[in-house]
Design goal:
Keywords: NAD, Oxidoreductase. InterPro entries: 6-PGluconate_DH-like_C_sf, NAD(P)-bd_dom_sf, UDP-Glc/GDP-Man, UDP-Glc/GDP-Man_DH_C, UDP-Glc/GDP-Man_DH_C_sf, UDP-Glc/GDP-Man_DH_dimer, UDP-Glc/GDP-Man_DH_N, UDPglc_DH_bac. This protein has 443 residues and is α/β, with parallel strands linked by helices. The protein folds into three domains: 2-196, Rossmann fold (3-Layer(aba) Sandwich), CATH 3.40.50; 205-294, N-(1-d-carboxylethyl)-l-norvaline Dehydrogenase, domain 2; 298-428, 3-Layer(aba) Sandwich (Rossmann fold). It contains 19 helices and 14 strands. Strand 5 (114-118), helix 6 and strand 6 form a beta-alpha-beta unit. It binds nicotinamide-adenine-dinucleotide and uridine-5'-diphosphate-glucose (UPG). Residues 6-12, 29-32, 35, 83-86, 98, 101-102, 120-121, 149, 151, 153, 260-261 line the site of nicotinamide-adenine-dinucleotide (NAD).
Length: 443
């Protein structure tokens, strides 16, 4: 089948590449000329494990191409995916300007029946709006379908090729047939496609993300309580997660959820509720708790250093909002680095993939290190924000000899408390007892 994908961010690129891999001919359209030039040059614009192999293979086999021209991209396409940004607008609701602008441009250039698919995360009622925008200038028949994407960054290819489910919102039999044909290779491998109406599909995406954000936030609240009562959140997680009604995934307490999706989608669902005059109290609480959680370690650093970080050097391991991505959108590390700098500290950072993106924000205000120990060497404390595999089993000897004080603040609970005690580190994590051998370091 011939497919067009408009927008080649994470979702567009994965969607386009994976559908090429299942035998379709895909043209990706993006207005970013530099990005398109890069991709035409076989350069991957993002870091996503496993995607480059499929990307190169499908370009080489002539099934994946790139253009900046919408008209050229959609020529002959049976399906047009809109994988465009839906960032928070000024009031926090999803900004539909990118989607509606492309919908408007599509109307006059459609020349045969086509299925236009909202792949972006969009509020309830968007399919109707897109349909109206296209219809205003269209001379041919078309359908608009909601097909939200559930992939996670870092494991995007697997999530796309082996999804728990695919959700398709359409009340058109013609569109359903086209979508069934497109997803047939995944269905044959046992991955279900769930058909429903457009509005339910749109709401399913926000419900899923908000539920997962709530699950994490609930465990973060339990972690905070653990610290007060002297319990261990890891033990509690194992205890509750084995209940199959709860499930053991997305129960890891830490320094709050980040990324390009949970923060904006929880906020957008709260705005939708308000629009319908519904007071969704739970979502307000989730956002408030997550905000507090993100900067939870900062006061602990201040306390450890006797009231001030002035003149201290803080090493930061991990900048990306999660491992295996270079994405730093809403990453907890960014909030904290800003606080460290404002408190008068010097900051040395290391991340395996995200440093280039962080340079665009902090420039030369912080020091970028070529490896993890270059950050920790001669620093007064180490703070961990991302659970990259390489941070899970560090050389503790090198770490201890390099640090000016043997103190680790761990926002991801990577290390065993007993091991840290034996090694002689001071170790402050989330929802677990503090390992404190040394006295507060005086300024
Ligand atoms: N990132 C994820 O993991 C993820 C997962 C599921 C769903 N989503 C949703 O998918 C949507 C896209 O997210 P993303 O992270 O891929 O976005 P992104 O911001 O990474 O990329 C969007 C791309 O669209 C391009 N673009 C903007 N206007 C355009 C236009 N008029 N024509 C062509 N291209 C244009 C931009 O240049 C950019 O390359 C959002 O609604 C998001 O919520 C994202
Ligand atoms: O137990 C957990 C699991 C995750 N997180 C945090 O939650 C955030 C989001 O993580 P994850 O969901 O793995 O990454 P995303 O790539 O943002 O994926 C989410 O957002 C996407 C965009 O909508 C959806 O498609 C995915 O289904 C949904 O998981 C990150 O900050 C994680 O550190 C935790 O703190 N504890």
């Amino acid at each position: 089948m011939k497919i067009a994908v408009v927008g080649t961010g994470y979702v567009g690129l994965v969607t386009g590449t994976c559908f090429a891999e299942t035998g379709n001919h895909v043209t990706c359209v993006d207005i970013d000329e530099r990005k398109v030039a890069k991709m035409r040059n076989r350069e991957m614009p993002i870091f996503e494990p496993g995607l480059d192999l499929l990307f190169h293979r499908n370009i080489d086999q002539g099934r994946l191409s790139f253009t900046t021209s919408l008209a050229e991209g959609i020529e002959g396409a049976k399906v047009i995916f809109l994988a465009l940004p839906t960032p928070p607008g000024e009031d926090g609701s999803a900004d539909l300007k990118y989607i509606l602008q492309v919908a408007e441009e599509l109307g006059p250039i459609l020349n045969q029946y086509v299925v236009v698919v909202d792949k972006s995360t969009v509020p309830v009622g968007t399919a109707e709006k897109v349909r109206a925008r296209i219809a205003a200038n269209a001379t041919v028949d078309f359908d608009v379908v909601s097909n939200p994407e559930f992939l996670r960054e870092g494991v995007a290819v697997d999530d796309f090729m082996k999804p728990d489910r695919v959700v398709v919102g359409t009340t058109s039999k013609d569109a359903q047939k086209v979508m069934e044909q497109l997803y047939a290779p995944l269905v044959r491998q046992g991955n279900p496609v769930i058909f429903m109406d457009e509005k339910s599909a749109e709401l399913t995406k926000y419900a899923a993300n908000s539920f997962l954000a709530t699950k994490i936030t609930f465990m973060n609240e339990i972690a905070n309580l653990c610290e007060l009562v002297g319990a261990d959140v890891d033990a509690v997680r194992r205890g509750v997660g084995t209940d199959t009604r709860i499930g053991n995934r997305f129960l890891f307490a830490g320094i709050g959820y980040g990324g390009s999706c949970f923060p904006k989608d929880v906020q957008a669902l709260e705005k939708t509720s308000k629009e319908y005059e519904y007071d969704f109290k739970l979502l307000d609480a989730v956002m408030e708790v997550n905000h507090r959680q993100k900067t939870k370690l900062f006061p602990k650093l201040i306390e450890y250093f006797g009231g001030s970080l002035k003149g201290k050097t803080i090493a930061v391991w991990g900048l990306a909002f999660k491992p295996n991505t270079d994405d730093i959108r809403e990453a907890p590390a960014l909030y904290n680095i800003k606080d460290f700098l404002e408190a008068g500290a010097r900051v040395k950072v290391y991340d395996p993939e995200a440093m280039e993106n962080v340079k665009e924000i902090f420039g030369d205000q912080i020091t970028y290190c070529s490896h993890q120990y270059a950050a920790s060497d001669e620093s007064d404390a180490l703070v961990i924000f991302t659970e990259w595999p390489v941070f899970r089993t560090p050389d503790f000897d090198v770490l201890q000899k390099g640090l000016n004080n043997p103190i680790i603040f761990d926002g991801r609970n990577l290390y065993d408390l007993e091991v840290m005690k034996e090694l002689g580190f001071d170790y402050i994590s989330v929802g677990r007892a503090e390992v404190r051998k040394h006295q507060t370091v005086k300024v």
